Structures are given as C-alpha cells and as structure tokens.
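agent: user wants the full assembly modeled, not chains individually. Plan: 1) parse entity lines 2) check alphabet per entity 3) run joint structure prediction 4) return tokens. Steps 1-2 passed, two entities, 750 residues total. Proceeding.
--- entities ---
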Amino acid sequence: MKNFFSQLVKKEGFKSVLSSILCILAGILVGFIAMIILACLNERQSIGDAFYGLGILIAGPFASGTSAYIVSNLGNMIFYAGPLIMTGLSVAIAYKTGLFNIGAAGQFLMGTLASLSVALHINCEGNAFLGVIVWIVAVLFGMMAGMIWGAIPGFFKAVFNVNEVIVCIMTNWIAANIVSWAFKGMPELVNAGSGKSGYLITTESTFNGTPTLGLNKLFAGSYLDLGIILAIVLAIVVFILLTKTTFGYELRACGANKYGARCAGMSEKRNIILSMAIAGGLAAIGGALYYLNPGIEFKFDTAYSRLPDYGFNGIPVALLASNNPIGVIFVGLFIRYLNMGGTNLTSAGYNNYISDIIIALIIYFAGFSMLFKNIISKLLKKKEKQPTLAEKAAVPAEPAPAALPDNAPEEEKKEPVSDEKAQEGKEA
Amino acid sequence: MDTVVYLIQKTLIYAAPLLIVALGGMFSERSGVVNLALEGEMIFGAFIGAIVAKIIMEKQLLTNYQVIFVIAIAVAAIASAIFSLLLSFSAIKLKADQTIGGTALNMLAPAVVNAFALALFNMEKIQMPAFFPGYVIKNANPDLTAIEQIFGDKVYISTYIIFVVFILLSIWIYYTKTGMRMRSCGEHPQAAASVGINVFKMRYLGSTISGALAGIGGYAYIATVANGTAESSVAGMGFLALAIMIFGNWKPVGIFFGALLFGFLKCIGPVANSIPFLKQFDLPLQFYNIIPYFVVLVVLALTAKKSGCPKAEGIPYDKGMR
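--- prediction returned ---
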C-alpha cells in the first residue's frame, strides 16, 4: 500500500490533480472572504450567513428543496456541463498546440447560428426519424461554421504571425454582431408569443431537438439529453487523437517546442491552423448542443452586446484539467456543480455572481499552478531525498520531446513513455 | 460642415477612453508585462469611481459637478491601480502565465461588480443620478468657428484630462531616466539588471501606471459614452484599446492616430441615424459595430511582420537567464 502511494505521488498527473485541487480550495477560500465582506456591508445579513452560504455552495445541487427539485437540479447540472465540456475541450486542444483559444465564445455563437438556422427552418412534426437526421445535420453545420471561424485566428497566427489572442477577441465580437444581425434577417424564426421579445423559437416547435433517450425522464423536470453523452464521447475522441495518433503527436510537438517541431519536418503552420479549426469545431458543437435542446431559448436581439459565458468558462475548465481531455469532463461537471450552488445562494441572501467570482479566482490561482506543483514536488522530495537523487543519477538527461526524428510516431507506438516525456518537457 | 463638426466631436468622445487605455497597455507592455486585463481594470475602476460619484452626489457633499467628475476619475485610477496589482503580483513575483492572469482579472472584475452592485444597490448596474455632470462647457452659440466648436462646445472635462495625461506620460516614458529604464526592462531585462536597474520595481511601476490609466479610461467611458451607467461590461473597449496599442506599434504617436481612427469607426454606429448621408443606407447597428473589429484584423495582418513589440514582454524575469 505504501509502495503504491509513493508510486502515485511521483506521477506527473497526480501532481496536476493535487495542484488543481489546491487552486479550487484557494478560490473557494478567497470567495468565502468576499462573502464575509458582503455580509458585513449588507445590514440584512450577518456573518453567520457567510458560513451558511459556504455550506450551500459546497452542497451544490443538493443544497435545498424536495427530492424532486434536487433530481431536476442534478439533471440540469449535467445538461449545462455538456456545452461547457465542449468549450473546455476547445481551449484544451488549442493549448496543447501552444495556442490560447480565447475565441471559444465566438465559435460557440457561430455554431449556434449555423445549427439553429438549419434546425429551425425544417419542421419535422410527426416524423421522428427525419427529426434525428435534421438534428445530426444541424450539429454538423454548426461544427463546420465553428471550424471555419476557429481557423481564422489560426490562419492569422500561422501566416501573418499575429497574436492569436487579439484575433480571437476581435472575431468574438464580430461573431456576436453577425449572429444578432443574421437572426434579425430571419423573422420567421422569431418567437412571436406573448411577453417575448427578441427570442427565437426553439426546437420544441420544429420537433428536431436533441434526442433525449429518456434521460429527461430519468432526471425528471430537467433538460438533460443526449448532448452530455456526445460531449463525453468527443472528449474521449480528442484524448485518443492527442495521445495515440501521429497528428496528435505533431500538435503536441508544436505546442512543446515549435522550432523543434519544424526541425523535425512537421509543418508548424498547418498544425496551428488545423488545431484552431478543431478547437473552433468543438466549441461550436457546444453552442449547437446547448441551443438545440427544446427547452433553451436563444435571445438574439441583444446577443451583440455580450459574449456568452460558456466561451470564457471553457478556459478555467481546460486550465484546471491541465488540458487533459478526460479531466475536462470532470472539471466541467465540477464547475457546473459550483454554479448550481451559486444559484441556490439566494436563500442565504447572496446573489449567484458569487460563484462567478469563485470561478474567476480559481483561474487566477490556476495561473500559478506551476508554483503549486513545484511546492508539491519540493515537499515530496524533502520526504524522500535519497531515492530521488539516486533516481536522478540513474536516468540520463531526457531528450527534448520535439527533437525526435521524423519517424517519431512509430517510436511512440513502441514506447508510450515518450508521451509522458513530452508532457514533462513542455512543463519544464 | 455641421455634420463634420458633429462627427469630430463624437470621435473625440469615443477616442479619449481608447487613447488613455491604449497608453496604459503600452506602459505595461513596454515594461515587459502583457496586460490583457485592461478590460477588467476599466470595469473595476469605473465601478468604484461611479460608486464614489454617486455617494458624493446623493449626500450632496460637493455641488460642483465638474469637481465631482475629477474626483471620481482620480478614485477610479487608484482603484484600478490597486486591482492591477493582482496581475502584477502573479506575473512578476510569482512568474505566472500573464495571459491566464489577465483573463482571470477580466472575469473577476465583472463578477465582483455584479455581486457587489446587486448586494449594495439591488441593481446589476449603477445609474448615476439624473443631474450627472455632463459637458464642461455647453455653448449653444452658433456663431463659433468650427475649431472653437470642437474644443469649446460639448466637451467633457475627461477629454481634456486624458489628452494632458497622455502627452505628459508620453514625454515621461521617452525622455526621463525612469521612463527609459522602464522601457529597457521590456526589451532586455537581464541587460537592464546588469547596470543596476531593479527590474521587478520597474515592472511593478509599469503595470501599476497601466492599471491607473485603464481606470481613468474606464470612468471616462461610462461617464461619457455610456451616459453615466456603470455595469459589468465596457463593450470590448479594453480589448479594442489593446488592438490600438498593437496598431500603434507600441508607440504614443501611433496610438494617438490609432485611437482617433478607431474612435471614429466606433462612433459611426451610434450616430449613423443622425447623419443624413448614412441614414439613407439604413444599415443595422451590428454592421457598424463590426467595422472597427474588422479593420483591426486587416491592419494587424498588414503590419504584424514589422512589429515593434517589446522583446521581453510576457516572459517572467529570471535573474539566472542570460
């Protein structure tokens, strides 16, 4: 048992998880301090409310209400996690290639635009099979729109050497305006119901929403549908793509050391554009999955003035997961868990923005997760100084990951260890 | 002629916040810290400034609106400078990734603003009272010449402040000892350190000034362009300022012209309906909104190759690295 534990703590992945947990704890702690400050400023609240609020936040969807309410809350939490996992994957795959995809919001919107334009124009009432086909086509259209939109920053980075961050931000705002503008030109899609202004109709009226597979009955009263399963499948696909294929290896090599990748004969420019295109496609699927649910309405008339939160919340998801696609699934669920707690906070006299503060703080701390990791490593080394030294002497200097020869992928198949090395090389 | 004067007046109103925030970005980046948090710093500073202005006005501590305006700007600058310490601390002391730190601040500022505005005022935004200070001089005299109208009619006091601060700081960073030392830290911090310059101190100074300028710009934005409404968004002005800084090649003169150009592009949308020439096309607001961002992309594509980007920006200073 002890041996197993010492093996575990030496693993890079374990350190990543531990440092992510430290980030989360630090974020919640500082958020708690903000809650205490708010309680002091507000005469209707006492310090006790801060502790009560912390309890609600940690309990997430289980905080309050009848069991039926908790079940629907839980279902919604899982549903909302789906698009978040997609934007998280989008940020993660770009990060693996050394790119910071802050443009997930715009790609998400373009996916929404393309998929809704397809789905809402075709009424599939009474024909369930056609509904599924249209749904698939809508998701694919959304994905393609997102891929094109994501490829733009990649193209600018590869060809003109413009920082992708600034291009992503510009394309975000352009996308927001285009979406608002385009839907304004489709009056047939506008929900003319009473008390509605600026909303589109949903797939409820065109009968081609995301198939539910009975999941919404399992979690009665929630929006839960196939989307979350698709998101998990795509996360696994991305994981396999990144770790088990030649193409994924090239992407990671470009991220680890682009000069080395170029020396090894990889086309750095092609990889940057492709990586951003895939990232865009993933974020766009998130947008499509979210708004193709029959219960979710899209407010298009003010879409140009504010970017969707999903795009930016993909960043903490990817960071906390150390850009590991499988980790993204769990972190996406966790962030939604926190948000659910945030919406329940009103019973303690707080507003739901507390959870936004905590998420922002978590990213802030994730920025120096390297520091956390180093501290963990130091603490571990102190404990067992002798073996580590001996180990160091035994292992010769590691080769630079990207400086592997052309036939690296074959080598990789024989010796999966080089994968771990690539990881370490990037972080060193 | 009236239309031209009107357009220039509007351009100046939109250009002023962009100008000062872009200069703020330049201060940070020339000292070696990438400041993506300009947007967040603007939001935060503007919010604190608006709270102070609102309290002063409602309690009637002061009655001269222009004095309140100046005080609010100063408060916004201080608040943003303090807020920016979060970024500089993580970027300089803890050597964290500056892009992530900036993104975190951009998300933190709106969340904090929303949470505190809801808790304190039961609103997601702060609306300043109706007697909110407007133009410093409002001259209805039609006999003025065009130049007099542009600089003496319907001008906010913030515009004057911003242009003066811009000129003074531009001279300061180019022609004083400290300014030159700060710039050297963005180009080659190890070389700077070798002649006894404290790189950490210079970088803290640069990014703190940057935060203060973003705060000034943020308050100027909400007080003028947004008609006195402080909320959790400045509609991408911070990012546009960042793009203007790149457009201006990290130099004050370039930033000046960039800010005027983008101020003009940004103001067309809101004023298009009051200009007969543009009204006949009847284009939606979204079209005009896209123009500045689109132009940024085109300009970046054309100019990026000969970029004057500080060599050491975004790289944490490591004494051991030579």
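agent: reporting back. Chain B touches chain A through 46 residues (CB under 8 Å). The mean pLDDT of chain B is 85.
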